[in-house]
Design a protein that fits this description.
There is one protein chain. With about 140 residues, the chain is of the alpha+beta class. Helix content is about 45%, strand content about 15%. The chain contains five helices and two strands. The radius of gyration is 18 Å and the shape is globular.
């Protein structure tokens, strides 16, 4: 018998997946970008980086280049998005000591309505993403 546990996903993880879906709705080619980057990571045996992490890295890169909006920005989604959230209790063990912290997880975000998506070549975005990930210099717009 193989031991295993089943646990429901945290509220913050569910929100991240909903947010990722919203970004894919704002910019549909994002799905293909993320899929390609995930396949690349698998082929290079980068098992320590989760698909969700790769997705968030891709979104952060596209935001830094002003290709997609920040859906959690009140200027995009409205001030009311800041009111939506949950407190998440995190317990971490450091050097044998248990530390309990409450972390605010913002669950509100806009839908990007009215955002004019910038036109750009997907190959250029991929080249820029890889250059950014493997560069030692800070990302600039």
């Amino acid at each position: 018998m193989i031991p295993f546990t089943i646990s429901p996903p945290s509220p913050c993880r569910i929100v991240l997946l909903d947010l990722l879906r919203a970004y894919c709705n704002v910019y549909p080619p994002l799905r293909e970008l993320i899929s390609f980057i995930h396949l690349w990571a698998q082929s290079h045996q980068l098992a320590g980086i989760t698909p969700l992490c790769l997705s968030l890295m891709t979104i952060a890169y596209l935001q830094a280049k002003d290709y997609i909006p920040n859906l959690q920005d009140p200027e995009v989604g409205g001030e009311e998005i800041l009111q939506n959230g949950v407190w998440k209790r995190e317990e971490k063990t450091e050097d044998g000591n248990t530390r309990v912290a409450s972390v605010w997880c913002q669950t509100g975000f806009g839908d990007g309505a009215g955002w004019q998506t910038a036109r750009f070549d997907v190959a250029d975005v991929l080249a820029g993403w890889f250059q950014c990930v493997f560069s030692t210099t800070p990302l600039s717009r």
